[in-house]
Design brief:
Helix content of chain A: 40-55%
Strand order of the largest sheet of chain B: 1-2-3-4-5-6-7-10-11-12-13-14-15-16-17-18
Largest sheet of chain A: 5 strands, mixed
CATH architecture of chain A: 3-Layer(aba) Sandwich
Distance between the termini of chain A: 46 Å
Mean pLDDT of chain A: 85
Strand content of chain A: 15-25%
Distance between the termini of chain B: 28 Å
Radius of gyration of chain A: 21 Å
Oligomer: heterodimer
CATH class of chain B: Mainly Beta
Number of helices of chain A: 6
Structural class of chain B: mainly beta
Mean pLDDT of chain B: 90
Number of helices of chain B: 2
CATH superfamily of chain A: Periplasmic binding protein-like II
Number of strands of chain A: 7
Strand order of the largest sheet of chain A: 5-4-6-1-7
CATH class of chain A: Alpha Beta
CATH superfamily of chain B: Porin
Largest interface: A-B, 27 and 34 residues
Shape of chain B: globular
Number of domains of chain B: 1
CATH topology of chain A: D-Maltodextrin-Binding Protein, domain 2
Largest sheet of chain B: 16 strands, antiparallel, barrel
Structural class of chain A: alpha/beta
CATH topology of chain B: Porin
Low-confidence stretches of chain B: none
Order of helices and strands of chain A: HEHEEEHHEHEHE
CATH architecture of chain B: Beta Barrel
Shape of chain A: elongated
Chain lengths: 154, 369
């Protein structure tokens, strides 16, 4: 049996496809990685240089305390983006740097957390902690606040 | 270094527990323990030697345990090495971070004038090559410089701008003594062993604090007591006054890293018959080329000037003063490495005559977790 669409239906289908495509592109354009802190923190802003320092084991004081960086190890893509965009080194080089600092000075390595909810709890418990996450995750949780956009898909 | 004994272990163990427990009590908020194990297994063969007695082969396994504790501004670090030949608490120090730029430590630590030592300590996996430069060998491996000091450490970083800094480190503590044919570090279980004082300073320029690049000056003054009856070579020797002035660098240029340390020795040896003065220079340059993410090719040249006929160096059984070494390292599985090295090596001699031999080394190294 032959199935023929009317001109009106064809136009509607084309428009629908165009709208869906555009919506998907807009959603993709909003994909971003942000730096977050607990809602009760006294840290209001932090420079990219200070973020890099904190994650590279250099002591950074802000808002009356020492910044404590937290890492995510439950999202490989998020980690890769953070390493490339913020730390500017490969994961292996970064791990080696942390090992070197610990061996030489006893510098603590950033705590690694494998669960987003646990990460958010840790941010709430420790007011000078910082972490990175997807913007959509951060916006969906009232316990954290975004203080910097680290990466945005163009 | 002396063999393991239960009393030393008990003292260090007790001290470790005391410091950790105290720190836990004073910790107001967050504290963090961290533990690393550096493992390595290596074999070497010496051949084509001028003296057949220098030829041979051996293999060994080394475990290096690193424990750190951090709580607010308190910091504790302990490094314990365990090999098939020795066991020793290499470092044990407690520190207080006064502010972001200033740190103080008390305890036993590696001498700050030894660049290689303070960069890699006993973490064999962290150093690209298998061998250490002769200049920076450990005390029980004919190392001519003190490696361990027990005392106080002060460190301050002067920021020049947001990313550039100058770092100053000062240490004062008990120097090793010279016993038998080696320098012997201060033994906490033998505080009456007659150790004199050692003072060191290090000034480092860091063009970018986010990188590992640095260039630095070092100075040390060590009064080394001599156990005259421990060796016929020391029979008429009362004391050694050792001054060193060094220049070191570690610099990365694209896929290359250059590391170098040059140390000028000024030695006064106080013999019964009078003081013998001498000076000489020892140094090395190591180049590493990162061919791929996993493969590194490296080489090192070591040499000295005016070190021939040095009475100080002749107190050690085999100070390596000249070495031409090439090697390759393969990194795999995140934190494992296989390394091979071949070298043409000479020991300190007299009137241009040196014992020489060739070395072939293989090593597996790793770090856990």
């Amino acid at each position: 049996m032959e199935c023929r669409l009317s001109v009106r239906a064809r136009v509607s289908l084309v428009l629908l496809t165009a709208i869906l495509t555009l919506t998907a592109k807009m959603a993709a354009a909003e994909e971003a990685v942000v730096l977050v802190v607990g809602i009760d923190t006294t840290i209001e802003e932090i420079s990219l240089l200070d973020i890099r320092k904190a994650y590279l084991g250099i002591s950074v004081s802000l808002g009356g305390g020492t910044v404590r960086p937290l890492r995510r190890d439950d999202d490989e893509r998020l980690n890769n983006i953070f390493m490339q965009s913020v730390i500017a080194m490969s994961e292996r080089s970064y791990e080696r740097r942390l090992l070197s600092l610990m061996l030489r000075f006893g510098t603590p390595r950033p705590e690694e957390i494998d669960n987003r909810d646990q990460l958010i709890r840790r941010l709430a418990e420790r007011p000078f902690s910082i972490a990175y996450m997807w913007k959509s995750e951060a916006e969906a949780d009232a316990r954290v606040k975004v203080i910097k956009v680290l990466w945005q898909e163009h | 270094m002396k063999p393991f004994d239960r009393y030393r272990f008990a003292v260090f163990g007790g001290l470790f527990l005391l410091v950790t427990a105290t720190a836990s009590q004073v910790a107001q908020a967050e504290s963090k323990h961290d533990f690393l194990v550096f493992l390595s297994a290596d074999s070497f063969e010496t051949f084509d030697a001028t003296d057949p007695a220098l030829e041979g082969s051996d293999y060994g396994v080394t475990s290096d345990f690193l424990y750190t504790f951090n709580s607010d501004r308190f910091r504790f670090l302990a490094e314990y090495i365990w090999t098939d030949e020795e066991n020793e608490m290499e470092r044990m120090k407690a520190g207080w971070q006064i502010n972001d730029q200033t740190m103080t430590w008390l305890g036993r630590f590696h001498t700050i004038t030894n660049y290689w030592t303070t960069e890699y300590h006993h973490g064999q996996y962290m150093q690209t090559s298998i061998s250490r430069p002769g200049l920076e060998e450990w005390e029980d491996e004919s190392g001519p410089m003190p490696s361990h000091v027990t005392g106080a450490w002060f460190e301050h970083e002067f920021p020049l701008d947001a990313q550039t800094a100058v770092n100053l480190t000062l240490t004062a503590g008990l120097a090793p003594i010279f016993e038998g044919d080696e320098l012997v570090p201060f033994d906490v279980l033998d505080p009456e062993s007659g150790n004199e004082m050692a003072y060191s300073a290090r000034l480092v320029y860091r063009p970018d604090v986010l990188s590992m690049d640095k260039i630095g000056l070092t100075f040390s003054h060590s009064d080394i007591a001599v156990v005259s009856d421990s060796s016929p070579n020391l029979a008429d020797l009362n004391a050694i006054n050792l001054v060193t002035i060094g220049l070191f660098t570690s610099w990365k240029l694209k896929d290359w890293r250059l590391s170098s340390n040059w140390v000028y020795f000024d030695v006064d040896m106080d013999y019964v018959t009078g003081i013998v003065k001498e000076d000489f220079l020892l140094g090395y340059v190591q180049a590493e080329y990162k061919a791929t993410a996993d493969w590194t090719v490296f080489g090192r040249v070591e040499f000295g000037t005016d070190e021939d006929n040095s009475q100080y160096l002749q107190l050690f059984p085999a100070v390596i003063t000249h070495r031409h070494m090439l090697g390759v390292r393969w990194d795999f599985a995140d934190s494992h490495a296989l390394t091979m090295e071949i070298a043409d090596t000479s020991t300190q001699g007299s009137d241009g005559n040196h014992d020489s031999f060739k070395e072939l080394r293989f090593q597996w190294s790793a770090v856990f977790p």
